[in-house]
Structures are given as C-alpha cells and as structure tokens.
Amino acid sequence: MQVESIRAFVPSKNYEESQSFYQAMGFKMGKASEDLSIFESGNCTFFLQRFYSEEFANNLMLQLAVKNIQEAFELISSIKGYNIKFEPIKNEPWGKVVYLWGPSGELWHITEFNS
C-alpha cells in the first residue's frame, strides 16, 4: 500500500463560524457538499463537517507542523471574534508548540520541530 494522504474530519458546533475561523487562520476553503468543506494550506488538507458531537469535539486533537512558531502565534493572537483559546508558545525537547482550541473545542497542536 502506498499512502498519498490522510485527512481528518473536524466537527463544527457552528459551521459558518468555523468556516470563517479557518479562513482567518489562512486556509483556503472549498465546498465539497452542502455539509462539508475542505480546507487547504500548502500540501495539507482537512474536512470541516456540519456535524457536532461535544464528546468527539472535546477529544479531537490534530497536529499542524509549521516552519515558524512565532509567526503562527502572532497570527493566532491577532484573530478576534471567535470562541477560541490558546496558550503561549511552550518549549519541548522536540521543538515548540502552541495549543489552540478551535471554535468547537477541537485541540490543535501547532508545532515547530527542532531542526
């Protein structure tokens, strides 16, 4: 088996708010169907679905690897008007990370790995 990609399906408590938030994060949005959007940045993609389960959303974790954690943190810090929370950059033995909880409670590990 030769794998080409893997894509997560992210739930949304408020579909339109989540769509807007991910666009503010710099992702390009495409419409897959009435209840499903696809978001893309570089070679990375994920689906946003018009579906919400609190238990699922609060247990969903995704990792987004970036080249510059400071740039990512500045972007996250500048986004206003969404029900999100985040923590400052944290140093780990393997790199740096910002924990970001999206509008539906999904947890993103935004990571810059050590070179």
UniProtKB/TrEMBL annotation:
What is the top-level taxon of the source organism?
Answer: Bacteria
**Sorted alphabetically, which InterPro entries does this protein's record hold?**
Glyas_Bleomycin-R_OHBP_Dase
Q: In its UniProt entry, what is this protein called?
A: Lactoylglutathione lyase
Q: Which organism is it from?
A: Zhongshania guokunii
